[in-house]
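User: My advisor, Dr. K., asked me to get a structural model of this assembly before our group meeting. I'm new to this, so sorry if the format is off. These are the inputs:
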Amino acid sequence: MAPGKRTGAAKGSRHNKKYWRKGTNIEEIEDAIHTKSRQKETGGVISEMKDEEIFMIDRVSTESKKPKLTNRQSAALEKITRNITAKQTSLPKPPTKMLKKPAKLPRGNAILKAQTAAKLAPKKTTKKDNFDVWSKDLTPKVDNLDNELAAEHYLKIVKKKQPKTPAKSITSLLPNVEVAKPGASYNPEESEYVEYVTKIAQDEQKLIDQEAKIKRGINPQWEKVATEHERFLEMAEGLHIHPKFDQTDGDDSEEKPDDEKTFTSEVVKCDRLTKEQKKKKEKAEKLDKSEKRRLEEKAKEVDSHNVYRTKQLHKELDEEAKRIHSAAEQRKKQKLLQKLTKRQRLGKGNFTEAEDPFLLQEELTGSLRTVKPQGHILDDRMKSLQRRNMLPIGGEKEKKLKKSLKRKIVEKRSVKAVVKGSRVI
Amino acid sequence: MKDRFKQKYTAGAAVAYMSRKQALKKLQLTLKDFRRLCIIKGIYPHEPAHKKQANKGSTANKVFYYRKDINFLAHEPIINKFREYKVFLRKLNHLKAKKEDDKIKKLYDNKPVYNLDTIVKERYPTFGSALRDLDDALSLCFTFAMLPHTRVLKEGMIESCRKLTAEFMHYVIESQSLRNTFISIKGIYYQAEIHGEKITWVVPHERGLPHVTDVDFTVLVTFVEFYIAMLGFVNFKLYQGIGLFYPPQIGQAVEEDEMETESYKEQVYSLAKPLSKRKDVEQAEDDEPLDLLGEDSDALALKIKEAKNIKSLFKGCVFYINRECPKEALTFIIRNGGGVVGWEGGANNLAPSAKNITHHIVDRPMDKMEVNRLYIQPQWVFDSLNARRKLPTEKYMPGVTLPPHFSPFTSEKAGDYIPFERLEELRSMGKDVSELEAAIPKTMDELPMRRKEVKPEKPKGIHIAVGQMHKKSKEKFHETVEKGQELKMRELMISKKHQRVYHSMKTQFKRNRNDALKLKKKAKLSKAVDV
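Assistant: The format is fine. Below is the predicted structure of the whole assembly, which you can bring to the meeting.
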């Protein structure tokens, strides 16, 4: 039978008995047996051979097979393997989801029962039990896990246990509650009160001055806008309606407004040097040069002598290094102190100092019953939190520039649609 | 092989910090929830030292957090509660629109709530650390207890603030640990010493707080939310420490239901009645834990003496408070000093005509007075605590202009100006004021008068005296002086034409002489170095 062509029983499906009896290709089987026996004779069955017996390795890889681990990783790996070999671990079964039972329909007087039960039941109290947090162990636990590390790992994965808290950073050294100054007493001593109030007044004056300065800056100093009257005068120049017209001629020529200032830059003089001056200058330059040369030579000489001063030089260098080191330490300390006592820039907004509250002299009654409370403690608290770098200070939101311009619809007269009732011009 | 080119912003400040926007993206939270989370967990922003580095080249003022902190926040289970709450609100909205009341009720019953216990312990690993942070908590809670409830300020929060602050004041009274008070126009400052820790807080005046507009209440509410959880635990621990029941009990054993009643709460809040103590706990004697470190024995002795004085300050005194006086503050201080307080219709229900009253606190002019009691204005109580002794009451009688109320929080330095009254007060407190007194600058009339030389009196009339030799002054009539004078005269005679030349010559001489001197000195120095 030609290979590839199947006839008779071989044509049918192979899982039937008929095929096994009639359709089997005996040649194929014989071939297979033959090749196998031949292989056995020559060296061995190829399908049973190992890779090394069949293939040759002609080059060995230069890299080591294991991925290189860092010291840390290898230590961790070792720890894990040690634990695993020590105790066989078994992870707890994940909690299976409870299937919801279908809700029962109320039967008979179930609704009534539920209502009465609700009435009878005590009110749900949200109060919690009191306990000592600092002595009670709040760490979550797993029951069916004997290995400690595995339990910890499990708890971390299911987010029951928190990782280690990062080191707490101190935000400020300022006191939490700043006590009001003695001048802010409801019945202050006179000198203390005066001191307190003058400080506030000075701050206020500073503010006023600043505002005035800004105002001065805004107003043009030498220019002014022509008033209506001035415009009129200018227009009426030379006409007989001008108020100057009636006056005698001699007077107005002398009159000149005082406040008008003219700016003329001073003429810069650039005289040539005289002969004598030139000479002097030359001489001075020469002297300078010679002095410089002398100093250089001297420095060289001193340098050459330094060979004999090595011991002393070493000492000096040591001292210098020590000084620099101590200065650096000092600077570091100063920087830290600065950071812990000054306000940091947190956010876009600017910190504004709270204004100290005060009472006027006539408002100080000296009696607790009639005292007028000033300032607000919440305001104070907020400022304190901001001063201690615990809250960011938000600024105004940036205004976004519109990228696309809005279309404006204009009805032009020439193309205005003619509708019923429109007028013809 | 090492990387030849290291990429920018892959190390240092650029990695150590994270902007708020980045944090929001990482945690998948809204800004509002993130703010809440940060406050509850005690995570604060930081300004990077190299802002441009941290900001990846930009210098915009952003809010930065440590990356480590944000990674830590990501593990917080409360975040899930925040998300659940978001879902809850959405459902609520939905049901409200449908007007399904029973379902709404059910939803409210299953409202997601989060527990702050673990966070309290995480932020304050020891009781001492919680005590150190009590200043903020107390100041905020005392203020919140006085606020009216609004949409942001829930009623339950205000109620628990009131309860917790009253409990804390009860503890201070029972342990007698209040040390200083100061009435300022902002409010009343108190300082107590608890477990060796100085705790300062401020309580607003009872006059009702004005409305504030520029305070972000949502932020403060979050702070208060955390502080309420913290203060509950602190109070419990403090009560345990001195053997009191927690929640506080007045009188006999009280049922839990009774504790919820208004009248009982009123009794607790009034501070007038002592709390009952547990019998199973031994009452500790008067030995306070004191920090011995960094203080010499003198200061320590003084401290102990002061504490003792305060404990027996008002012992055996019965105070009647008139209705116009601030009751809470006065009761707090008086009971801290061991006194008994009452007022009409209060917890003790003391009648104004009771025989046992020793002090009557009044803050208005009185016309009818009883003989067998002392009438005082409220300031007397405050000043007495600060002075650690009962001050004479004459200066504090009703209708009298009061002496100034000093702040006990200022420490006087030598060289400062200290008013006479304050000096007296300090002296009375047993402090050494000699140094302060000596350092006060003196005015002209205070300075000791220069002692006048006592001249022997001239005898009147004709008398004989011992003659004195005439002495010629050596300085005045020295040779050189005479020569110099002569020279000056001659110089005057020089004609104007030659005068200039003469002067220039003279200055040149002078300069030369100075140069010579300098050179000589140098030479000497160099010689010394060479040798």
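One thing worth pointing out at the meeting: Residues 8-49 of chain A form one domain.

User: Perfect, thanks a lot.
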